[in-house]
UniProtKB/TrEMBL annotation:
GO terms for biological process: import into nucleus. This is NAD(P)-binding domain-containing protein. Pfam families: NAD_binding_10. GO terms for cellular component: cytoplasm. It comes from Chlorella vulgaris (Green alga). Gene3D superfamilies: NAD(P)-binding Rossmann-like Domain (3.40.50.720).
Amino acid sequence: MSKPLKAVVIGGTGAVGREVVGQLLNSAKYGSVVTVGRRGTEVPASYSSQAGYDGSKLKQVVVDMDKLEEQARDAFAGADSVFCCLGTTRGVAGSADQFRKVDRDYVAATSQAAKSAGTPFFALVSAQGARPNVWASDFKPLHGLLYMKTKGQAEELVKGQRFPCTAILRPGMLERGDLARGMEKLFSKLVTSVSVAKVASVMIKEAENFHERHTAAAASGEPIVSVFEMGDIQNPRDGRQLVVIAAGPRPEPPMRNFQSSNSSNGVPYSSTSSVASSTTVAVPLATPVAAPVTPVSYRVTWWQAMRFNGVPERVNGRLAMMAFLYIARREMETGLTVIQQAQQIPQDWSTWPFIALCLLFVYAAFPPALVGAKEEDFGIFRVAAEKTNGRAAMLGLAVLAALEWHSGFCFF
């Protein structure tokens, strides 16, 4: 990497985008930083006061995002790295369609503009749990599913461009500093989170590593896709990255005719930008990329999911914890033992909502297991603790029923 690099930042007004711009202006490896968006970017004061800061490198281009490819063509010309930090909320966007437009359609247009300009490196800020094929609905209470689906679709559209190197970051809860709202500050203390500055630094470091060490590997023609999950962002491995190697040639997707859909289940891009299966391996940055490898499926069969210490125990444990609390409350209200409460279920309509909730929990536990989802800790919630509590609740229910059957009296 001999000459200064040129970077283009899309979404530079957001929490992550501002950090990317600030860090690039302090990087000696980048000689030009161009922001493209609906308005200019305000660089955080913490960066402008640093010794290596050079504000003269910054050029801001204001465009109509609906005409991004046309109006930002000159801005993308000669770019070595493009950092896409686009993202909004449904509340800010105003509707599900507008949310998809920003988080999917604008990302697609950005990747098309970068591809047309011959940009070798493209970085995208996605989200933890992004999955293009998850079932979703425009129904607002189910927006979490739409969010994961839209982010996953955006990832596939970017990968479909086959840049020499693509970096996809999937952070969870973000620590947004002075941009954080009250509830965000609260939840960032309760669950695992990562600072927006850390996300930005991982993106830029990956770009610099590519330009320094992977130029020869990229010339082989096989694209590199690096996927950074939450743990990889929090604790990046020194000198290593996650590399996804394509399983075979894929057709170039016609991105220009991308259409929004009112239904998040009928995805227009699926027929034009299908991405071949891939597998993830860890290799040193200096190691040349190996030949395409056989794709690996993480899906499991029904019988595998039903193994000992699998879904059944998890479901039974969760149901036991819920049932123990429910039964204890009902005993205090009605004076009925566990067995007496069970005998009255057919006639007692008040218990049916609880039973429906239990069935919903059972149903929700199976889809993640069947697609091979990994059990992970989430903030104060620990996988091992849930199993221990579930086993204790199952044993507790059995002991409670036995004691009450033997004595004939309620325990609570």
